[in-house]
Amino acid sequence: MSVKEIVQFGESVLTKVSKRIEGIDKQTIQLAKDLCDTLYNSTGVGLAAPQIGISKRMILIDLRDGSDPILLINPKITEQSGKEKDIEGCLSYPGYEGIVERPEKVKVVGFNLKGEKIRYSASGLLARAFCHEIDHLDGVLYIDRAEKVYKE
Ligand code: CO
After folding, report:
1. Chain segment 42-101, per-residue pLDDT in tens
2. C-alpha 46 – ligand 1 centre gap (Å)
3. Which helix (H) or strand (E) holds 75?
4. What's the CA-to-centroid distance between 132 and ligand 1, angstroms?
Protein backbone atom coordinates (compact mmCIF):
# COMPACT_ATOMS: atom_id res chain seq x y z
CA MET A 1 0.00 0.00 0.00
CA SER A 2 1.25 3.39 -0.85
CA VAL A 3 -1.26 6.01 0.12
CA LYS A 4 0.02 9.42 -0.94
CA GLU A 5 -0.81 12.73 0.59
CA ILE A 6 -3.35 14.58 -1.54
CA VAL A 7 -1.95 17.88 -2.73
CA GLN A 8 -4.04 20.79 -1.55
CA PHE A 9 -5.19 23.97 -3.30
CA GLY A 10 -2.41 26.55 -3.45
CA GLU A 11 0.38 24.15 -4.42
CA SER A 12 1.87 24.86 -7.83
CA VAL A 13 1.64 21.30 -9.21
CA LEU A 14 -2.15 21.78 -9.35
CA THR A 15 -1.87 24.69 -11.77
CA LYS A 16 0.71 23.19 -14.12
CA VAL A 17 0.04 21.44 -17.41
CA SER A 18 1.03 17.80 -16.84
CA LYS A 19 3.35 15.95 -19.19
CA ARG A 20 2.25 13.21 -21.55
CA ILE A 21 3.29 9.71 -20.56
CA GLU A 22 5.54 8.18 -23.22
CA GLY A 23 5.47 4.42 -22.79
CA ILE A 24 4.45 2.19 -19.92
CA ASP A 25 7.42 1.65 -17.63
CA LYS A 26 7.86 0.76 -13.97
CA GLN A 27 7.21 4.34 -12.92
CA THR A 28 3.94 4.40 -14.85
CA ILE A 29 2.77 1.20 -13.14
CA GLN A 30 3.79 2.58 -9.75
CA LEU A 31 1.91 5.81 -10.42
CA ALA A 32 -1.22 3.82 -11.27
CA LYS A 33 -0.91 1.85 -8.01
CA ASP A 34 -0.37 5.00 -5.99
CA LEU A 35 -3.43 6.63 -7.56
CA CYS A 36 -5.53 3.55 -6.69
CA ASP A 37 -4.24 3.29 -3.12
CA THR A 38 -4.79 6.99 -2.53
CA LEU A 39 -8.26 7.18 -4.11
CA TYR A 40 -9.51 4.14 -2.21
CA ASN A 41 -8.20 5.61 1.01
CA SER A 42 -10.55 8.56 0.40
CA THR A 43 -14.23 8.96 -0.39
CA GLY A 44 -13.62 10.63 -3.74
CA VAL A 45 -14.78 9.38 -7.14
CA GLY A 46 -11.73 10.49 -9.09
CA LEU A 47 -8.10 11.44 -8.79
CA ALA A 48 -5.52 12.83 -11.19
CA ALA A 49 -1.75 12.33 -10.93
CA PRO A 50 -0.97 15.99 -10.10
CA GLN A 51 -3.12 15.57 -6.99
CA ILE A 52 -0.48 13.20 -5.62
CA GLY A 53 2.29 15.52 -6.73
CA ILE A 54 3.12 13.88 -10.08
CA SER A 55 2.78 16.15 -13.10
CA LYS A 56 1.91 13.40 -15.58
CA ARG A 57 -1.20 12.70 -17.61
CA MET A 58 -2.97 9.88 -15.78
CA ILE A 59 -6.42 9.81 -14.19
CA LEU A 60 -8.43 7.34 -12.16
CA ILE A 61 -12.22 7.41 -11.88
CA ASP A 62 -14.43 5.17 -9.79
CA LEU A 63 -17.99 6.37 -9.38
CA ARG A 64 -18.45 3.76 -6.60
CA ASP A 65 -21.64 2.58 -8.22
CA GLY A 66 -20.44 -0.92 -9.00
CA SER A 67 -19.08 -0.06 -12.43
CA ASP A 68 -15.45 -0.84 -13.23
CA PRO A 69 -12.86 1.76 -12.26
CA ILE A 70 -11.34 3.65 -15.18
CA LEU A 71 -7.61 4.30 -15.31
CA LEU A 72 -6.55 6.31 -18.32
CA ILE A 73 -3.19 7.48 -19.58
CA ASN A 74 -3.02 10.62 -21.74
CA PRO A 75 -6.82 10.99 -21.79
CA LYS A 76 -8.34 13.42 -24.24
CA ILE A 77 -11.87 14.60 -24.89
CA THR A 78 -12.55 14.16 -28.58
CA GLU A 79 -16.20 15.21 -28.72
CA GLN A 80 -18.61 16.94 -26.42
CA SER A 81 -22.25 17.92 -26.58
CA GLY A 82 -24.95 19.49 -24.45
CA LYS A 83 -24.59 21.38 -21.20
CA GLU A 84 -25.49 20.45 -17.67
CA LYS A 85 -25.07 22.16 -14.32
CA ASP A 86 -24.41 20.06 -11.24
CA ILE A 87 -22.54 19.94 -7.96
CA GLU A 88 -18.83 19.15 -7.82
CA GLY A 89 -16.21 18.83 -5.15
CA CYS A 90 -12.51 18.03 -5.18
CA LEU A 91 -10.17 16.18 -2.83
CA SER A 92 -7.69 19.03 -3.30
CA TYR A 93 -10.25 21.56 -2.08
CA PRO A 94 -11.99 19.75 0.77
CA GLY A 95 -15.01 21.06 2.62
CA TYR A 96 -16.42 22.93 -0.35
CA GLU A 97 -18.74 22.26 -3.25
CA GLY A 98 -19.62 24.25 -6.30
CA ILE A 99 -22.02 24.41 -9.21
CA VAL A 100 -20.22 23.80 -12.48
CA GLU A 101 -21.51 23.72 -16.04
CA ARG A 102 -20.06 20.81 -18.01
CA PRO A 103 -20.88 19.04 -21.27
CA GLU A 104 -23.72 16.58 -20.86
CA LYS A 105 -21.95 14.03 -23.04
CA VAL A 106 -18.32 13.48 -23.90
CA LYS A 107 -16.25 11.05 -25.90
CA VAL A 108 -12.86 10.31 -24.39
CA VAL A 109 -9.87 8.46 -25.73
CA GLY A 110 -6.78 7.35 -23.81
CA PHE A 111 -4.58 4.35 -23.08
CA ASN A 112 -4.74 1.63 -20.46
CA LEU A 113 -1.77 0.12 -18.64
CA LYS A 114 -1.26 -2.37 -21.45
CA GLY A 115 -0.79 0.52 -23.86
CA GLU A 116 -4.08 -0.27 -25.59
CA LYS A 117 -6.18 2.59 -26.91
CA ILE A 118 -9.51 2.82 -25.10
CA ARG A 119 -12.54 4.90 -26.00
CA TYR A 120 -15.42 5.90 -23.77
CA SER A 121 -18.76 7.52 -24.48
CA ALA A 122 -19.96 9.04 -21.24
CA SER A 123 -22.87 11.09 -20.01
CA GLY A 124 -24.02 12.54 -16.70
CA LEU A 125 -21.76 11.94 -13.71
CA LEU A 126 -19.15 9.98 -15.65
CA ALA A 127 -18.87 12.71 -18.28
CA ARG A 128 -18.49 15.23 -15.47
CA ALA A 129 -15.79 13.13 -13.80
CA PHE A 130 -13.82 12.87 -17.06
CA CYS A 131 -14.00 16.64 -17.53
CA HIS A 132 -13.01 17.34 -13.92
CA GLU A 133 -10.05 14.94 -13.91
CA ILE A 134 -8.77 15.90 -17.37
CA ASP A 135 -8.96 19.55 -16.28
CA HIS A 136 -6.55 18.67 -13.45
CA LEU A 137 -4.02 17.57 -16.10
CA ASP A 138 -4.27 21.03 -17.64
CA GLY A 139 -3.86 22.79 -14.30
CA VAL A 140 -7.52 23.74 -14.05
CA LEU A 141 -9.60 23.28 -10.89
CA TYR A 142 -13.39 23.18 -10.75
CA ILE A 143 -13.35 26.35 -8.66
CA ASP A 144 -11.92 28.12 -11.73
CA ARG A 145 -15.07 27.15 -13.64
CA ALA A 146 -17.70 27.18 -10.91
CA GLU A 147 -20.42 29.79 -10.94
CA LYS A 148 -20.74 29.38 -7.18
CA VAL A 149 -18.53 27.71 -4.52
CA TYR A 150 -19.82 27.20 -0.99
CA LYS A 151 -19.10 25.28 2.19
CA GLU A 152 -20.36 21.71 2.15
CO1 CO B 1 -10.46 17.31 -8.32
Report:
1. 999 999 999 999 999 999 999 999 999 999 999 999 999 999 999 999 999 999 999 999
2. 7
3. strand 70-81
4. 6
Cα-to-centroid distance, 129 and ligand 1 (Å): 9
Distance between CA atoms of residues 6 and 104, nearest Å: 28
User: What burial class does residue 69 get, using C-beta atoms within 10 Å of its C-beta: 0-12 exposed, 13-18 middle, 19+ buried?
Assistant: middle
Cα 7 to Cα 38: distance, rounded to the nearest angstrom? 11
92-133 pLDDT, tens per residue? 999 999 999 999 999 999 999 999 999 999 999 999 999 999
CA–CA separation, 21 vs 73, rounded Å? 7
